[in-house]
Amino acid sequence: MSERIGLFGGTFDPIHVGHLVAAVNAHHDLGLDRVVLMVANVPWQKAGAREVTPAEDRFAMVKAAVGEVPGLEASRMEIDRGGPSYTADTIAELSALHPGAELFVIVGWDVSAELATWERLDEIRDLATLVVVNRPGTPPPMGLLQDGWRLKEVTVPNLEISSTDLRARAASGRPLDYLVPAAAVRVIRERGLYSLSG
Ligand code: ATP
Ligand code: MG
């Protein structure tokens, strides 16, 4: 049987349990062989709007966080490619690397509502099945089937948690523990990210 690979892209600034719960449930529910957490190099939709933590630091957090979880892996493909991170390029690279693999692009509800802004969306639609995961704060997506997507839904407990909130928590000295996996909190402290130290 062909390999089933999930691509879960993000800025992961920082990674949190909302990301990980989405990834492990997509892995389980869809019988994926692996879910690749793809750390965006330059998240073109966020660049300029705020200062994004250096990609190597975000990658170190993701790698630490997925360390122990079977079926999940951190990828630096977009970092190594350099420049802005377009999912169309990543999907093309993954399908060249894994000929015959079945590819799944996993997104939360908020991102599924913004797909129309993605570069070369048709190429992604041709090569991958879209997987949407519920996320509080955004309504469920509409019209994806009419748009021609092969579509799967994955349902997880609603986790009202975002990297934006976590950055604000850290800035005001509140703890990240249990919202961010312990191994990633260690990386944050070691590297002094988000003004946390020790
Ligand atoms: P930010 O607030 O900086 O945008 P974020 O928490 O939205 O950070 P991203 O790195 O932007 O995290 O998101 C990566 C992917 O994870 C997106 O597809 C997003 O929809 C999904 N995601 C993030 N948080 C959750 C959550 N709590 N539940 C379900 N999906 C989530
Ligand atoms: Mg986001």
CATH structural class: Alpha Beta
Q: What order do the SSEs take from the amino end to the carboxyl end, as H and E? A: EHEHEHHEHHEEHH
Low-confidence stretches: none
CATH topology: Rossmann fold
Largest sheet, strands/sense/barrel: 6 strands, parallel
Straight-line distance between termini: 48 Å
* CATH superfamily caption: HUPs
Please tell me how large the radius of gyration is. 16 Å
Number of structural units classed as domains: 1
Give the strand content: 15-25%
What's the rounded overall pLDDT mean?
95
Named CATH architecture: 3-Layer(aba) Sandwich
Morphology: globular
Tags for this entry?
single chain, 198 residues, Rossmann fold, six-stranded parallel β-sheet, 8 helices, 36% helix, binds adenosine-5'-triphosphate, binds magnesium ion
Structural commentary:
The protein is of the alpha/beta class and 198 residues long. It has one domain (4-160): Rossmann fold (3-Layer(aba) Sandwich), CATH 3.40.50. Helices cover 36% and strands 17% of the residues. The chain has helices at 17-29, 55-66, 77-81, 87-97, 109-112, 121-127, 163-171, 182-191; strands spanning 4-10, 34-39, 72-75, 102-108, 128-133, 151-154. The protein has a six-stranded parallel sheet with strand order 3-2-1-4-5-6, sandwiched between helices. Helix 2 packs antiparallel against helix 8 and helix 4 (87-97) packs parallel to helix 6. The longest helix has 13 residues, at 17-29. The chain is globular, with a radius of gyration of 16 Å. The termini are far apart. The mean pLDDT is 95. Adenosine-5'-triphosphate (ATP) is lined by residues 10-13, 18-19, 22, 107-108, 110-111, 133, 135, 159, 161-164.
